[in-house]
Automatic annotation (TrEMBL):
Protein species of origin: Chloracidobacterium thermophilum (strain B)
UniProt name for this protein: Protein translocase subunit SecD
Region spans: Disordered: 240-273
Domain Protein translocase subunit SecDF P1: 156-217
Positions of the Protein export membrane protein SecD/SecF C-terminal domain: 382-547
Gene Ontology terms: cellular component: plasma membrane
Amino acid sequence: MRENVLQRALVILAVTLASLYVILIGWRAPRLEDFKSFDQIKKNVATNIKLGLDLKGGSHLVMQVMVDEALKKLCDDNAEKAKGILENIGISVKEARSLSATQLAITINDAERIAEARDKVLEDFGKSEWNATVSGDTLTFTLSERVAQEYRRRAVEQAMLIIENRINAFGVAEPTLQRYGPEQNHQILLQLPGVDDPERVKKTLVLESNLELRPVDGTYRTYATLEEAKAAVGVRTDVEALPLDERDEDEATDEDGNPVTRRNRQPKPDTPTAYMVVSKTPVVVGRDLRDAFAASGTVDGDGDYRIIFKLKDEAAKKFGEWTGKNIGKGLAIVLNGRIKSAPTIRGQIRETGEITGNFTKASAEDLALVLRSGALPARIVYLEERTVGPSLGADSIRQGVAASIAGLVFILVFMVVYYRLSGVNAIISLILNLVMLLAAMAMFGAVLTLPGIAGVILTIGMAVDSNVLIFERIREELRAGKAVINAVELGFDKAFITILDTHVTTVVSSLILFVFGTGPIRGFAVTLLAGLLANIFTATFVSKTMFGYVLSRSERPTALSI
């Protein structure tokens, strides 16, 4: 035991310095300003040891991705697609419609060609993905459950990716974004610590961004009611009536300075005063965008805002060719199923366009952000919203820290009174345990939550318990008449198995909590797990080294303060 005390002490010193470095500096080179004041040191610690939602304040959101709505849209699109396929080979279609999120029906006029129609559509749809049944003159196509489940899974993953992109654009530090509950619920958990404007963030996260540039059908005629517009559409399937948000004409220009007649007004939100008939087939869609940003309508920046968008090279080339061939015709800028503006094409337009409307600076910036991040695969609804104020988080920190300090002081006094100078040994081990725990959290980017503070307090208790086991074993050996050095050696050896056993079982429990638990439970598991691993080192290595140092100061120690 008394051998290699210096080497063991150097290991302890290295671990201590490394832990303090990670807590105070983090994973970077130190700078002189890191230690210029106590406030700066506190700021460094706050940066490296991140606080959770319950301590820092912020928003807790549970969202659901409406994946069946996306599947319904897929069936709607496929019904139109199947109709086009059949009409291209001369099979007249009476009706094409979706029946549910995974079923669509096609009714044809010539029942004798029903088998041909089935085979032709399945050839395009894929026989491994769709099943077809025939009933008279009607074909029913059903999406296989395997494909439907995969589509739902991908929709949730894509939604999480887009939400993450939108959160990053807001600069939210250490958000928590993960699947929530059983996979079949299609739910997402999002925690946003320290958000200044949670309502704006929540609105932007679920904002749709389905941008389409569609040809206007015929002239610029508008209709006062939806019924009038539908009557104008009649039986045509290549066009549809959409609400128009802008009407009054004014002059604007395209990217080359050519005049563009734009119908522009300031409507009430979601209250269309007219409708327009446009093509169902867009020339440009949202995924063709390369960039989008908000811009003021005036030089001084105080006017109405608009969104400037730029197209990818391939889309810009296609758009330039199309506008060059359609000069004098109308182009509707459709956003989320509403026509925001409908300019007349006065010249060839290539990569740049704009969306005008009743935009404030914030709404224009949010919409530009949404367009850049991409369209959500399905609508998202909030199932649970909870906001924690910073003051409540601060109270939690104060109470948690006060409880930790009170427990620590009581334990320190007890250890010194009951185990005398050996209690000092336990105190030093305990302090190093806490330092290593905080360093581990900083190292792995773990977030400290209120249940995490409970884990810290429990770690303190288990650290003391380990030292008590060792000290009581040493006392037993001393009472049995063993020499001091042998008593200490045997005390550590006999207590080690018990300590290891209790720690391994608790570590396994912590891992289970971490894997299967959610936010607060995982926070408790993280701190407890880090504390337990640190405690094995401090109780068996650090404490033993300090005993070795004390015993090495005498050739034949005859007494031990324990």
